[in-house]
Amino acid sequence: MKPQDYLRPAKDGCILSVDASPGADRTEIAGINPWRGTIQIRIAAEPREGAANEELVKFLATKLGVPTTSIAIVRGARSSRKTVHVKLDAEKVKDLMGRE
């Protein structure tokens, strides 16, 4: 599995497969999990009342240079494993995420 397998093209943008770890000291990309085909992201918020999801969306929006309205968690809102839709071309996302 290639590191970019966490990312695939979709209608109006792309889909990211994310393994989120809330409760971290700071929000950051922790790496790629090739077995799960996910990008691992540590989140500096607790998984209470949607705080970790909100932090994840803000982090991705900042990292990718898009408004938060361009990021949507489409599956896994109550799980650590999430499917996120980004209204940005997959190649652009791969380039921006690879700069970590």
Polypeptide structure, described:
The protein is α+β, with helices and mostly antiparallel strands and 100 residues long. It has one domain (3-97): YggU-like (Conserved Hypothetical Protein Mth637, Chain: A, 2-Layer Sandwich), CATH 3.30.1200.10. The chain has helices spanning 51-64, 90-97; strands at 7-10, 13-22, 28-33, 38-43, 71-75, 81-86. Strands 1, 2, 3, 4, 5 and 6 form a six-stranded mixed β-sheet that branches. A hairpin with a 4-residue loop joins strand 3 (28-33) and strand 4 (38-43). The relative contact order is 0.25. The model has no long low-confidence stretch (mean pLDDT 90).
Helicity level, as a percent range? 10-25%
Given helix and strand content, the structural type is alpha+beta
Task: Note the run of SSEs as H and E.
Answer: EEEEHEEH
Which CATH-level-2 architecture? 2-Layer Sandwich
Strand content: 35-45%
Number of helices: 2
The figure for the number of domains is 1
CATH topology: Conserved Hypothetical Protein Mth637, Chain: A
Give start-end ranges of low-pLDDT stretches.
Answer: none
**What would you report as the Rg, rounded to the nearest angstrom?**
12 Å
For the report, how would you describe the main beta sheet? 6 strands, mixed
Mean of residue pLDDT? Answer: 90
Q: Which superfamily, in CATH terms, is the homologous superfamily?
A: YggU-like
Record field, number of beta strands = 6
Given this structure, which CATH class is correct? Alpha Beta
Amino- and carboxy-terminal Cα gap: 20 Å
